[in-house]
User: Fold these one by one.
Assistant:
Number 1:
Amino acid sequence: MGDLWWGVLTVCVGCYALKLAGLSVPPVILEHRLTVRATALIPVGLLAALVAVQTAAGDREVVLDARLVGVGVAVACLLARIPFLPMLVLAAAATALTRLVT
């Protein structure tokens, strides 16, 4: 068996072990107030990190371009409580106009 298949097998065993470890956590720990609060905030942090990376990441450097303008317009629309679909259209239009001008 080649190195690639040993790697695939190792990842499979690791994923199964991680799943098994998650299932074996006692309910007392899972129902703790701090655990419930922390797990509710994890998706927010992951989404914020994803948006930050997709907005300002280049090949190996930070890039500030039209994507940042689009995110800025989306944040402004969010603060103004504009619904999602118009916010999406405004952010896309701002990004497109910025790319057109520059």
Number 2:
Amino acid sequence: MIDGTWAALYIFMLAAFTGYEVISRVPVVLHTPLMSGSNFIHGIVLVGAMVVLGHANTTPELVIGFIGVLLAAANAAGGYAVTERMLEMFERKPKEG
């Protein structure tokens, strides 16, 4: 492997470990604000995937870029749907009678 590949692999493993440690310590009350903030990040990932797809030249690059855009869009849409359902739990119900 090239030196840059080792560095990228190291950064990926460090990010995965850090993400796991941070998310596992989030209190239950903060899940809704955290989900809302992560939706913003999913949007940035989607824009990045579209930029990468726009610069793709070969067929494998186009396929990987398309899959990246597809997964990023699904992740962002799912995040918004989950946030909406979580926020509905806090809406006040009209009193009967």
Number 3:
Amino acid sequence: MSKKTLVLGASDNSSRYSYLAIQRLRSKGHEVVGIGKHAGTVEDVTIETTKQPVEDLDTVTLYLNPLHQKEYYDYILSLKPKRIIFNPGAENEELKQLALQNNIQPMEACTLVMLSTGQY
């Protein structure tokens, strides 16, 4: 089943984990929205540099350190995802608590591992 996913901190740099996440999500048939610091493209996903409206969002997967997440708090919560995945280096207790208060499941996990083990 496809889970629409927002990759926050998306990059078209092939050495970045967010790049690999977009590739693997697409290869598993998931719809992906990418937002990053720089515009670009990964596979068939256009990386936007501004906050985009996203309907029926299942997952936000974070590839931003906590300092850079703050400006996205209201945006993330407004999208009402079912879960937020805090990839390694993106762990953030403040956003985790905000997620819980808004009935969003926070997960400290690795999107790439979850995809490779069938837990996504």
